[in-house]
Design brief:
By secondary structure, the chain is an all-alpha fold. The protein is 85% helix and 0% strand. Helix 5 runs antiparallel to helix 6 (115-148). It is rod-shaped and about 90 Å long.
């Protein structure tokens, strides 16, 4: 005899195996699946047939995973966040370089550097190093996400 709950548990495992790992998302999909099964059964379909049709209508897990990944990559809020991140890194690099270059110019002109000038140069180097580290992290993350999609 057909067991709807057991079939839904198996369906959930299939979704997770296909890459749909977010529990809230799977719960939402399950809710839609159950609603569709209920609707089909109220129209006279048997439980097994209603489940099969509802699951087929939702689609295979790999297709759902791909759709959610595409939606995530095209999210306008995510794009705004990435743009702010990029602008913050650019600003940090510009500030750091702006602190370093005048001190290098003085050093090249063989002018004596005061301790405060050396400190500014060191602060600039730290800011540039931080900006480069953040940019590298962002690039690595973007490449990993591109590879997953």
């Amino acid at each position: 005899m057909f067991d709807l709950d057991s079939s839904i548990e198996q369906w959930r495992r299939q979704m997770m195996a296909a890459g749909v790992k977010n529990p809230e998302l799977i719960d939402e999909l399950e809710s839609h699946l159950r609603d569709d099964v209920e609707h089909r059964m109220s129209e006279g379909a048997g439980a097994a047939q209603a489940f099969e049709e509802a699951a087929r209508r939702l689609g295979p897990g790999i297709d759902l995973h791909r759709e959610f990944q595409n939606a995530k990559l095209n999210d306008p809020n995510l794009m705004k966040q990435k743009l702010r991140y990029f602008l913050a890194i650019t600003a940090a690099l510009a500030i750091g370089v702006g602190l370093i270059l005048p001190e290098i110019a003085k050093w090249r002109a063989q002018e004596p550097l005061a301790a405060s000038n050396v400190t500014l140069c060191l602060v600039g180097m730290v800011i540039v190093a931080f900006g480069v580290a953040c940019a590298t992290r962002g690039l690595v993350t973007a490449l990993k996400n591109r590879h997953k999609a």
